[in-house]
Amino acid sequence: MKLIQKYLFLLLLLSSGFAFGQITEDPEDRRDQGREPLRTQTPDGEPLPFSQRLRFGGGISSLQFGNSRIGTPLIIGVSPVVAYQASERLIAGLGINYTYYRYKLRYANQTVTDQSNQYGGRAFAMYEAVPSLVPHLYAHVEYEGNNIRYADQLAQEYRRRWVTAPLIGLTYSQRVGRLAGINLSALYNVNYNADVYSQYVYGSPWVLRISFF
Question: Phi and psi at residue 191, in whole multiples of 5°?
Answer without folding.
Answer: -90, 0
